[in-house]
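Batch manifest, entry 17 of 40.
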Amino acid sequence: MEPIRLLHPDLVPQRREALQHAASTLVQMGLDDTVLSAPLVHQRLAHVVLATSGMIEWAPGSGAVDDGPDERFGVERVAGDRGGVFLSGVLIAYLDVLDNAARMSTSISEDAWRTLLWAPTALFDHVLRRPQVGMTVVPPGRGTEDLPHERAQAGQRLYFALMQAARFAVNGVVRAQDDRTLVEDCVTLATACLRAAAVALAFAADVVDDPPELVVETAEHRYLWQVVGDVRAAVPRASFDQFSAALRRLDDFRAACPLLVAGG
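Output type: structure tokens
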């Protein structure tokens, strides 16, 4: 698998306005979340365009990052067009997971698969202020190839991308406390991303032999725990309970599985 470009943790956008131009451009090109329900041949073409066409401006990142996990899983931390890098990274990570699932199949349940695929639609809905009209979920393929290394890499990289999306959403909670509607929208998005991130880890570990060592604790994961009190103060109790349960589930996954607890 080719390396995937993700933002340096310090560069994760803090407001949806920072993503709107990139999101609108991707929609115009047919490269938004709807590509995830397109035929596999279209998904593979979209992957090529997003990853190698030069349409996303980026530059080498700077600043301290624990690059051990990044090197293991083929992640390159970059700067540049933050909105473009952020959204294309999420989409590329999803396309890699869908391609692996088509070639290798998966034991992930139908409900978990829907949870996984809801997050990118929720992200684009939020950024573009689209009405939520649902999504089309294409079930994973039934391929019989044996690609455990690629599976672990794809699932782990999607986890990294989704944790950045969760951080972006929580930034909105913390910064928009006077706008109750926006705060609710942001915490709902953060919860969706965290739930999907847990499924991404389960997907990465969905192999018959030799479960991979995975990474749960990242800069984004630590940030979410650091601001959990701010989230509690900003959102209704029911919304916070759902958010905190999704965050705790990642720690439960870490305790239950042979994970490498490290991160950037």
